Amino acid sequence: MDCHVKDMGLAAKGKMRIEWAGRHMPVLKAIGERFEKEKPLKGLKVAACLHVTTETANLMKALSMGGAEIALCASNPLSTQDDVAASLVKDYGIKTFCIKGEDNDTYYSHIESVLNTKPMVTMDDGADLVSMAHGKRKDVLESIIAGTEETTTGVIRLEAMAKEKVLKYPILAVNEAMTKHFFDNRYGTGQSTLDGVIRATNILIAGSTVVIAGYGWCGKGVAMRARGLGGHVIVTEINPVKAIEAIMDGFEVMPMAEAAPKGDLFITVTGNKNVIRREHFIRMKDGAVVANSGHFNCELELEEGLYKMAEERIAVRDFVEGFRLSNGKTIYLLADGRLVNLSAAEGHPAMVMDMSFANQALGLEWILKHKDKLEKKVYVIPEEVDRMIASIKLGTMGYAIDELTEEQKKYLASWQEGT
Ligand code: ADE
Question: Where are the domain boundaries for CATH 3.40.50.1480 in the chain?
């Protein structure tokens, strides 16, 4: 089969891990079982650019049960799990192109390999796939009817494309579903980011000053978990509303220039570039640890900043590199500034990815049903799909909730009744 993975000998280990994750993804499992009967994706050629993890493998499985023909590449050079990639090829028949630690050229050549399959639908995480289909590989646009996008950064890029009127096909923004960002961005990023930092460094968070740049859904999750582990948390923001939210949630808020000399651990989750720059690195304490959990490593000024400032680079341990600066201090960078949760750990747990990927699967089905009516813009998942996923998830978690009575429904639809 057309593929490029590290080592097919890892497939057996990958399969066990994929099945383990599958046990924690009951909503996706139910969707896969329905898809197998109804085949709503029969013959649909899907190009997927996602983090190649055990959770993604379960999504690929559900889509192929629905009849899709999939080609998959990574959405980040460091986020691939090589055993999963091998198993996807061997056990699930998915054309897979990704190797953990691939260089940028290989990363982009893998995106091209996926586009070479002449997809009808793109499934992206960060919009690199869509971006190539609108740039170097415009030739593939002819066959593409629509796409989905998983993450905040990708949605921002795609909205910019739509605004400039250069977007050539409709996109469904999975990230905007409540059952995605409330749980994946907050609890998923919160836990997996700290997991990545701890696996890479084994530092104690209790008693450390943790500086978190960005108080969006992801930043909120990271701040909550850093505090839960006993960290003293400082938040930096550029949005006054989010800054007030962080203050009222009980965090210290200040500009990065003030936080730089205070922090023991820095984590960026903003979606923006150069959030920690030269002027910040130079003010940091000796031994400060710096990580990024946003989609791209451009959140840290590396090429023009830390890398140029370093008089010596020290490979300390897996995913930890020291940079000795001219002031004699050493700053430790995790996972080359790539998203630390997927590079040094395994990404979000299956329990939350269950809802995110249920949105991907049902989103794809929704796109196919509505393809003739869609315009070349970014769409949000319909609320009824979102609520349906929440209801199924709640049931699988063993919880029941109340239902509105007829009287309550009437009351909510009326305006006459007051005090
Ligand atoms: N994004 C964050 N965590 C992930 C995971 N476990 N699988 C796929 N994409 C992810």
Answer: 8-180+349-396
Q: How far apart are CA 260 and CA 247, in angstroms?
A: 19
- Ligand 1 atom nearest to 339, measured from its CA: 2
With cut-offs at 50, 70 and 90, classify the pLDDT of residue 419: confident
Burial state string for 368-401 with b = 16 or more CB within 10 A and e = fewer than 16: eeeeeebeeebbebeeebbeebbebbeebeeeee
Q: Is the pTM of this model over 0.85?
A: yes
User: For the residues of 144-192, what is the DSSP string, one character each?
Assistant: --EEEE-SHHHHHHHHHHHHTT---S-EEEGGGSHHHIIIIIIIIHHHH
Asked if pLDDT for residue 418 goes beyond 90, the answer is no
Rounded to whole angstroms, the Cα distance separating 144 from 323 reads 45
Pocket of ligand 1 (CB under 6 A): 50-51, 53, 55-56, 188, 342, 347-348, 353
8-180+349-396 CATH fold: Rossmann fold (3.40.50)
The alpha carbon of 397 and the centre of ligand 1 are apart by a number of angstroms equal to: 21
The answer, yes or no, to whether residue 388 has pLDDT greater than 80, is yes
Domain with CATH 3.40.50.720 in the chain: 186-343
In 227-309, where do the E strands start and end?
232-236, 252-253, 265-268, 289-292
Q: 180 CA distance to ligand 1 centroid (A)?
A: 12
Note the CATH number of domain 186-343.
Answer: 3.40.50.720
- With a cut of 80, say whether residue 1 has pLDDT above it: no
* 308: amino acid identity, one letter: K
Distance of CA 85 to the CA centre of its chain: 18
Question: What's the gap in Å between 184 CA and the centre of ligand 1?
Answer: 9
**Which residue out of 75, 348, 352, 357 has the highest number of ligand 1 atoms within 8 Å of its CB and is therefore the one to mutate?**
348
Q: Is the dihedral of CA 34, 36, 42, 44 positive or negative?
A: positive
Model confidence band, residue 127 (pLDDT cutoffs 50, 70, 90): very high
Q: Do residues 66 and 97 touch, judged by C-beta distance below 8 A? A: no
What's the gap between Cα 267 and its chain centre? 16
